[in-house]
Amino acid sequence: MIKALYHRLLPNKNNAPSLPDGSSCNSPCIFTDVLRDIDTGLIILDTTEKKVFFKNGHAVKILEPLKAAHDYEGLSALLCNDLDSLQQPGRTRSRQTIIHYEHRVLGYTVYKIPGDQRHISIFIQDITDRHRLAAIDEATEMMNNIGCLFSGIRHEIGNPLNSIKMALTVLQNNINKYSPEEIDVYFNRISGEIGKMETLLKSLKNFSMFETPRTSNIDLAMFFDNLMQLLGADIQSKKIEFRIDIAPDARQIMVDPRALQHVTMNLLANAVDAMAETPNPLLQVRSQSRGNVILLSITDNGCGMSNELARDVFKPFFTTKPHGTGLGLVISKKMLSQMHCGIDLVSEKGVGTTFHLTLPKSASKAQRADAPSGKSRENQRPSAFAC
């Protein structure tokens, strides 16, 4: 469809195009009129003559408020840094890309026409409002989680405090009647309740760790080699088979290594606990390339969980462990979201659980050097197109 519309717009031997400069059109130009009026911005660049070949009204409306130059050089700098994927066999379009520019959020995709090495077309939309609504939804969810968190804190601290208060009241009224052994029972009870609160406070301290992530380029293969030096002996002592499969094209990520280590160790510890009763425990780590992200999977063949439990694992203070705080996965999800990462799980009771982490790929040095100033870009990679 795009190819048909595109060639109706491009000049050929038999007809001239209908262009914004007023050029005549000697054949039906209905497709050109459609392209002019659609509510998606369309820009066509001539990479040979280095000029803007076509720009419809919606594209002008989107770009007009921006300070960036609207000529070939300006549009190339703004929108043409993600074209290397077009060089792959069978690919006719780039990945969908999002850029933040002057308080606006723009989404666009770059297309090439099969057999045409001269022109590229860019479909662009202003998705600022959509992003704003998504941010509102995220903020609402966060406030709900905070409310749940404070409710849980009140409960988790209130119960030990009540137990301590009751024990002290009993001791106060009977200190002269009880034997040293009986008094020790109450002191041990008080000490145990204080220990519960200390565990909770330690978890809450982790909740505020790495509030400002310091991301850097991380090699996943080296990351897990180092992690195994910390956890390898413990995993081997439990007779767990541990397999690590890091794909060559899914190694380089951009995250905070401290936060990733915290998250990964928590997930591995959960997996080890889940396999406590498994006859032949198997723990697997695997990475796969998925467009502009890397999917890191951590799989165990432990007890698994039902769909109902799986829906609640990221809620504050939800736990299936007798001595768990229910904050481990909440903290992990928070750390990942601060690094623009994601986490999800698939679990089946009696079969096992897989946690999927979505991690951003590292940007190349060339891309970071060539990126235009004044904007931030998602899914940005260096261009291999003569644009």
Structural class: alpha+beta
Helix content: 40-55%
The CATH superfamily of the largest domain turns out to be Histidine kinase-like ATPase, C-terminal domain
Q: What series of H and E elements makes up the topology? A: HHEEHHEEEHHEHEEHEEHHEEHE
Report mean pLDDT, rounded to a whole number: 77
Uncertain residue segments: 11-22, 365-387
CATH topology of the largest domain: Heat Shock Protein 90
* Name of the level-1 CATH class of the largest domain: Alpha Beta
Distance between the termini: 24 Å
- Biggest sheet, spatial arrangement of strands: 2-1-5-4-3-13
Give the total of domains.
Answer: 3
Backbone shape: elongated
CA-based gyration radius? 29 Å
Number of helices: 11
Describe this structure in words.
- A hairpin with a 3-residue loop joins strand 11 and strand 12 (352-360).
- 23% of the residues are buried.
- The chain folds into 3 domains: 2-126, Beta-Lactamase; 131-207, Orthogonal Bundle (Helix Hairpins); 216-367, Heat Shock Protein 90 (2-Layer Sandwich).
- Strands 2-1-5-4-3-13 form a 6-stranded antiparallel beta sheet, sandwiched between helices. Strands 7-9-10-12-11 form a 5-stranded mixed beta sheet, covered by helices on one side.
- The chain has helices spanning 2-9, 30-37, 57-63, 72-79, 128-174, 180-207, 220-237, 257-274, 307-312, 328-338, 365-370, and strands at 41-46, 51-55, 97-101, 104-113, 116-126, 216-219, 241-246, 252-255, 282-290, 293-300, 342-348, 352-360, 375-378.
- Helix 5 packs antiparallel against helix 6, helix 7 packs parallel to helix 8 (257-274) and helix 8 (257-274) runs antiparallel to helix 10.
- The protein contains 11 helices and 13 strands.
- The chain is of the alpha+beta class and 387 residues long.
